[in-house]
Amino acid sequence: MKTTAKPVAGLALALVCAACSHIPLLGRGGGNDAAAAPAAAEKPATPAVAKAEAAAPAASAPNAAAQAEASAADHIELKYAFQSNAAPDRVYAAITGVARWWDSSHTYSGNASNLSLDARAGGCWCEQLADGGSVQHMTVLSAMPGRMLRLSGGLGPLQAAPVTAVMTWTIKRAGAGSEVGMTYLVDGYYPGGLAKVRGDVDAVLGHQLERLQGYIDHP
Fold this sequence. Notes:
Layout: E1 3-4, E2 49-50, E3 65-66, E4 68-72, E5 75-84, H1 88-96, E6 115-117, E7 124-128, E8 134-144, E9 148-152, E10 163-174, E11 177-188, H2 195-217
Antiparallel strand pairs: 1-2, 1-3, 4-5, 5-11, 6-7, 7-8, 8-9, 9-10, 10-11
């Protein structure tokens, strides 16, 4: 998904330079995806994600993304939410237009415009590479315009590990706007345990949700 003022190409979701101090959730960055322990994720300059235990409930801050998370050696659970003034159909279109809001620094190619998301069952959240190659970040499990989008796939370093990962987006009408939620659940084996990458995954996803919210409200 902890609370976030913020908070789905293999939740990628790619994204790039050997000198980066963070671990790209989609891309390679400066190291192998699965082998070594990831470096600490880069935090947004104006963090929209606050730890749930240190922040007020989302109900007291309608535009803040509420985030709760749990982790164990073989499990990660992240939850995010935010309010938007946009109607559900607009929110859904924004989510599926991932190339418009995903951070280019978290791609394999270094350019988010190379990302695409085919929002239908079996569709691919993919990335085209300059040498003619490509990367599949996630696969669409369910696509319900204006209501829900569910994808399967381990993002970034998780792609190289035998894990099961599911990202679910939910959209509910709230007055003239929408209430948006996203969960990313990961279970399985990761060298050294999933708990050691939980913070990196959280920080990068939180940053992407902030960008998405900004794109929806200020296209």
